[in-house]
Amino acid sequence: MRCTINQAPGALTAHEIHQIMQAHDLDQLPPSTVQAPGGPAVRRPYRSSSGGPIDQPRLVLNRLRARLAAITNQTPAQMEPVQLLAYGPGQKYGLHHDQPQAGPAQQRFLETGGPRIISAVVALTDDHQGGGLLFPDLDQVVHPRVGYATWWHNDDRSARHQALTVTAGLRVVLVLFIRAGKYTGAADYELGTRSMAAGGS
Ligand SMILES: O=C(O)CCC(=O)C(=O)O
């Protein structure tokens, strides 16, 4: 079965997006990292965005989690911390799948709430150039509008995706992963000390 890419409007209002942007200095976000197999979070050329988990503004993020729970028919308790990512010109995230299929990374997921059954990306900007979300196995590129949530199930290989290189402007998104069970991993809100991520996110 091939995965379906869903678009849900109204994940965030313009005012809520403004509040999120105000709460973070986008120029000061640390480089995004990926999890080395069985090791620490490391920087890799195929992931050149900046950012990581956030917990502010708390009320807005809680509202977002509640809305995404309703949209996806899951619960906020299953959600990992929200991640804030910013991509400037030349930045991208190469091809990857959000749920590792084997190895130590998969084991860590099983210990903290089970697999990432759903991924969601919420667009905080849409006035950049480039930077689409490409699903090569589906032959589909998504350019989400501001405030929309793009979400999909990670059941099979066709959920592989990449954030294409931004060519002008700034692309800012929130990313949220939903586990099969209650998420029990680290909050890891300290930007730049991402230890919970695995399989490249
Ligand atoms: O930037 C995006 O749109 C996607 C981010 C992503 O694929 C991830 O964090 O796993």
Structure description:
By secondary structure, this protein is an alpha+beta fold. It has a single domain (6-179), classed as Jelly Rolls (Sandwich), CATH 2.60.120. The protein has helices at 14-23, 58-72, 103-111, and strands at residues 6-8, 34-35, 41-42, 50-53, 83-87, 93-96, 116-123, 129-130, 133-135, 140-142, 149-153, 161-163, 166-168, 171-179. The strands form four sheets. It has a six-stranded antiparallel beta sheet, covered by helices on one side. Strands 6-12-9-10 form a four-stranded antiparallel beta sheet, with no helix packed on it. The chain is globular and about 40 Å long. The two termini are 24 Å apart.
Secondary structure topology:
Blueprint: E1 6-8, H1 14-23, E2 34-35, E3 41-42, E4 50-53, H2 58-72, E5 83-87, E6 93-96, H3 103-111, E7 116-123, E8 129-130, E9 133-135, E10 140-142, E11 149-153, E12 161-163, E13 166-168, E14 171-179
Antiparallel strand pairs: 1-11, 2-3, 4-5, 5-14, 6-12, 7-11, 7-14, 8-13, 9-10, 9-12
The structure holds 2-oxoglutaric acid (AKG).
